[in-house]
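Supplementary Text 2. Reproducibility record for the structural model of the 719-residue chain.

All settings were left at their defaults, and a single model was retained for analysis rather than an ensemble. We include the record here because the model underlies the residue-level annotations in Supplementary Table 4.
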Amino acid sequence: MEILKQINYEPKNVVGGYTDRILRIDLSTQEISIQELPPEYKDKYTGGRGYAMQLIWDGTTSQTRYDSAENILVMASGPLGNEPSFPGTGKFIVGTISPLTSTFVDSNIGGHFGPLLKLAGFDAIAVSGISREDVVILIDGDARTISIAATPSYGEETDKGALSFGDRLLSEVGGGEYSDTVAAVTVGQGATNTKFGIVNSLYFDKKRNRIRSKQAGRGGTGTVMRYKGLRGIVTRTGLSKANGNNAIDKEGVRRAGSALREVVAKHDPEQLNLSAWGTTALSEYMDKFHLLPINNYQFGHSSESPKLFAQVFHDDYFSKKIPDGCYYGCNLACAKGAENITLKRGPRAGQVVGVDGPEYETVGAVTCMGIFSPDFILEYNWYCDEHGIDTISTGVVISFYMECFQRGFLTAEDTGYELKFGDEECASRLVHEIAAGEGFGKIAGQGVALGKDWVARKAAASQGVAENAIMAELDKFAMVCKGLEFSMYICKESLAQQGGYGFALKGPQHDEAWLIFIDQVHKELPTFEHKAEALKFFPLIRTWFNATGLCKLPWIDVRHPDAAATDTPSRNYPTLDYYVQYLNATTGSNKTLNDVLEDSERLAVLQKLINLRQGRGTRASDQIPLRAMGPAYFNEYESRADYYEEWLTEQLGAEYVPASPEERHELLIEKRKEAFQTLCDVVYKSKGFTPDAIPMRETVNKFGLLDEQADKLLAEFDV
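Retained model, structure tokens:
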């Protein structure tokens, strides 16, 4: 590779989980610098998500957009990332101003890049500017150099793909051989042509003897990376990963890790069995409880769903003899993969590939299109990763346009061909058009929020109807909030998950408040008060996982047997105690769970301030589409009429329920809308916000965030 700029540096040792350093790179000027952090920085912002938000808050303005030179792309682990003796410590986050939401988004991602970046001497890398030519960044802890290099070419098809390009890049940096001392993040052609491009985290898997990938899938982080002219970042270090955090209390780390590993080993097989099935285990539960998105979230259950249950993937696709953790030491090992999959369609038809996944979210993205083929799911999974596009947003976008066809808002004349639920050929075609920015894919690649405007204009012109009348219909079923497409859970029957999606600061992504399982499956949030309380607690603890470099699944998906005896079994308190013990042993702190929650609340308030500054933070931004609150159309109501009529009777009493199904449907929608607004009032108050979702001045001041910028911002809202 042609080196354009290089500096020498001395890697700083990790102590108590931190290096107290951020690597800063400005691609416009090719300036490379190292920022030394004061001790109080980590106390206030923790790491990961917190570091990313603080860099965005200080380094950008209300005018900053995803394609602004001053926008910052941050990749950051946290103090607890990189500990093989504790399950789930390979995580880091990618944070930036999103092309979909125009405000801060972070996406949690696994693999080896975060741990190796820390071992190479940095808690985070922050990239600003826009390069005049395509480049890669090389962080070599062994050679003690940081370089900006011209992007190498490996051939036209390879250069387009996030996976194939990254495979060659890792091999080259590794001296022609693969090694677990090298990891990379890369983007593909889809990041150039869409607003929902992803960042792929690539690492060498000794067990499968190939490169594996994990994804920062949500919010268009890859689109930002590609717009900056950045094709990949590679980090290398031969330092040992064992005790990589140089914990203050190594024995305390070992004890906490052993306790969690024992719970996972004993109880995962008798619960979700993620170690065997991966997250496809959720497919059967979601379908059984009418929560699996089908035909753009119209329905939650299908007689065809068993084709996609976990046992099918386990028996016919997954490599059963290979334990799959996305980082060393995680005995949950839920990162499944399939080998020797022959692609049947698209630009790589006939190629034999290894597929990483599928995860449940990808399964749901395909059923959302009305498709129930496991072969199609594997191919869709691989192509989205190779193209570098989000499987979730891609599925929701295609599903939205399929429903626009179903309801007569679009025709083949508008798009070039018909889009029908269940049609694998048209779905496959659109995936590749989206990634390449060709044909109708140029429109679809902009996401659902902008897609609504395009459809409204087209339909209004062709039908002679007012544009706002068309938009009113589209708003019923366009599954988007704050500019981000919904992740893959039907929430029309779960008020808790409706709030989880609506109040999620980045947009309707389940990692901030995944309440659907404890609400609809475990039935552990029976009252309005339980739901409201959960909508404060769970986003806070989940924020902490994103700040510290941890995977949430060993906590939330493996229930400790003692949790049932607590007042709030869904919080899984015995396991949360292990995480607090691990934090204290690593960093030398003496925090309680309440301290952890306060640290997280500080970050949540900071993110709310960023949202407000960027125009996405008021009550209006939290409003979700009608389909998220209840059956938007009568056909949805009919499919679950018994359930909905029972709910109405419980709410109103039999004598108040209208006689006709159509009237009952209208009344149901009215009551669901009322319930969501009441939920807004209660949750905002519990968080110290005004009724318009603005943090009270005392709330901001409580967490030491009332700086000059925050003071001016709150004054604009008369707070």
